[in-house]
Amino acid sequence: MTRVLLIAEHDGTSINQSTAKCVACATELPDAEVHVAVFADDGATLAGEAARLASVAKVLQVDRPENRHALAAVVAPQVVALAEGYSHVFGPSTTFGKDLMARVAALLSVNQVSDVMSVESSHRFKRPVYAGNAILTVEAPSDRPVVATVRTASYQAVGMDNDAAIEKTSTDAELPQHTRFVELKAGKSDRPDLQTASKVVSGGRALGSSENFDIIYKLADTLNAAVGASRAAVDAGYVPNEMQVGQTGKIIAPELYIAVGISGAIQHLTGIKDAGTIVAINKDADAPIFEIADLGLVGDLFKIVPELAEALSR
Fold this sequence. Notes:
Layout: E1 2-7, H1 17-26, E2 32-40, H2 44-51, E3 56-63, H3 72-82, E4 88-92, H4 95-107, E5 113-116, E6 118-119, E7 124-129, E8 134-139, E9 146-150, E10 165-169, E11 199-203, H5 214-223, E12 226-229, H6 231-235, E13 256-260, H7 266-270, E14 277-282, H8 289-292, E15 295-298, H9 301-312
Parallel strand pairs: 1-2, 1-4, 2-3, 3-10, 4-9, 5-9, 11-12, 11-13, 13-14, 14-15
Antiparallel strand pairs: 6-7, 7-8
Helix pairs in contact: 3-4, 5-9
C-alpha cells in the first residue's frame, strides 16, 4: 500500500480548492491510501471539511497555537514529525506549497519533485520544464520518502461526498525560535480567488497605469471573474504581485481566460496553458498571444473592453 500524507492549504476558515486537486493527483498512485493533515490553532471545522473530500481515508487534525498563521518554518518541522511511516508527502504547487514543501524536503534530506502533472508509477512522475515547452519524466529513489508539489492546474478537484475519519493528533516537533508572525498585508476583494476561479480577466502593460486597470476590474465584475495581470504590469506597479499570472506567478486553469493588452511572453503562457477557452484582446495582430488564443479581437482595448462590459451587463 502507498501511504500518502497530503498537507491541506487553508485560510483559517475553509480548505483551499488546491487541496482537492492534490487529492486527485494522490489517487493516481498505485494502491494509495490518502491522509490529509490540517495544521491550525483550532482546526475542527477545517478537518470536517477535509474529511468530505472524496478518496480521503483519514484526516489528521494538528492543533497548536503556533499554527494560527501558516508559516513554512513553523509547519515544516511538524510535517516531518508526522511523516514517519508515509512513503509520499504531497502539497500543492501554490505559494503556500512551494514555500512549505521545499523545507520539508530539506529536513528529510531528499530532493523535491516539483510540479507533478501526472503519475506514471509510485516513484515516476511527469513535470513541465523550460516554461512548459517540454515535459520531463523524473524518478525518485524508492528507498526514500517522496516529497512533491502538485501542479494543481493539471487536475480536477475531487468531489465532496466523503465522510473520512478525523484523528486529533500532535507532534513533539521543536519549532524554530528565529521565525514569528508579525503582520499580514493583503488586498481585500470580493472577487473570486485567482488561483481557483473559473473565469479570469488579466491586464498587461498596455493598460498604461493603475488607474486604467479599472476597465479590467469592471469587466471582471460583470463576469464575476477574478483579476490577474502579466509580469510587465506588476513590474510597472499597476497592480500588486499577488495578481501575477505566469511562470513566476500563479499557474491557473480557468474555464475562461481573457487576456487584455498582453502580448503573450512564454513565461505568461506557461501560467495559462491549461485554460479552457482563451480570449485575447490586443491592438497588435502579430502578438504571440493570438497563436494560442481560441478567440481574438484586434483593436484598441480602451474601446473594446468597455463596450464588451456594457454588452455583457445588459
